[in-house]
Fold this sequence. Notes:
Elements: H1 22-30, E1 42-48, H2 55-58, H3 62-70, E2 71-78, H4 99-105, E3 126-131, E4 145-148, H5 154-167, E5 171-178, H6 180-190, H7 208-228, E6 235-240, E7 259-260, E8 263-265, E9 273-279, H8 283-291, H9 327-348, H10 354-362, H11 387-408
Parallel strand pairs: 1-5, 1-6, 2-9, 3-4, 3-5
Antiparallel strand pairs: 2-7, 2-8, 6-8
Amino acid sequence: MLKLAGAGAVGSTGVLAAGGTAEAAEARAAARAVRPSGGVRRVVLFHLDSLHHEAPQRLGLANVQRLAERGTQVQEALVISPWHPTIGGYLPLSTTSFPNPTTFAGSLFLRPSREQRYLQHGFKGFTAHIANSEAYRSLNPGFDFTRLNGEDTDEDNVRLGLRLLREHDDLTFMRLLLQDTNTAGQAVANAPAGEPWARDIYAKGSPYPAVVRTADALLGTFLDGLERLGMVDDTLLVLLSDGQSRLGWHPVQAEDSWRTPLVFAGPGVARGSSIPYAENIDIAPTVAALAQIPAPGDDGGSGRVLDEIRTDDRRSTAPGAPGTPRRVERINRQIAEYLRLEGWLRAHARDYPYLDVQLMRASNGSLSDTQFWGLDRIDEWPQAESIDRMIEDNDSVLGTLRQALHDSGAPALL
């Protein structure tokens, strides 16, 4: 039986809220919310949390492949570094990891969650947010119905999603997240060193494969439900994730933490096709373009519309892989290098004090024209005004620190 808590606003207990609030209604109105069009009657973002990018092929996920055959899959989809702090300047922005709010904002530049315009704000009609973790509560603004309850199972979530589709003919947007894969991934990351599958989600005995196959089966249940409801042809369905390393969970310096499966299927999307590359900030503007609703925003941190997934004539003129900007990838690589380089400099600064001096100089706005836009400054990223400026500044700081290490006489970075 589906476990439902009492009605009310979602808070620390993760209860259900139905009917919406005055604040949510006002936010949608301010965002010029409209009903989807262009053949799209509703949008469902089906989020398989912590789905490793190799899992569909390695584990033979039949329903992920079934969806891919109906739409367009991205060969290499990257998310911004999946760091997940709950302290400091990031907390007013989000209670979940970097990829989640930036995906729904369609931008790397975030404002406090209650002020941020997300993808759901653009939809008129009934909107729903379902996830079996309270960590996503900062994404709730703009949804009419929210249920975030850690006691619910993935199966509970899928059943509730299908029930809402049956009961609400005006449902236009849903985020449906399955969390159990994340739990299994964390178990692998935190397993005792003597465990044969510690730090390897695919090792014999690991709990991860079985949980992922169950999630894939539930995706099949959801696809079957759409068919029974006669909603396949007018539903834009996006399968996405938010970071998972083979080592377990999503350490930010592990490059496979940045890569995720990503599939678009539904009206206006080419069938049985693939594109080389996309980034998580491209999802919201692409969904908005296909549904013909306002995008969450258009600032210097925004992603692009993936015109190359479309069936219309814009597909033939879309930019190819060589010209596609890989800005999120570049920032991730800069962050990973900075973490290693800064750590190395700090480890040797006691014996080579020049390193401490240069680290302080690189962090002082009155002594240096550029500072590194790192994980601890995501609340300040909008001050860069553009992703390109972030990349340029980061390259400058990294060059300065590399030179400082060379000049100090300290051991070279391994």
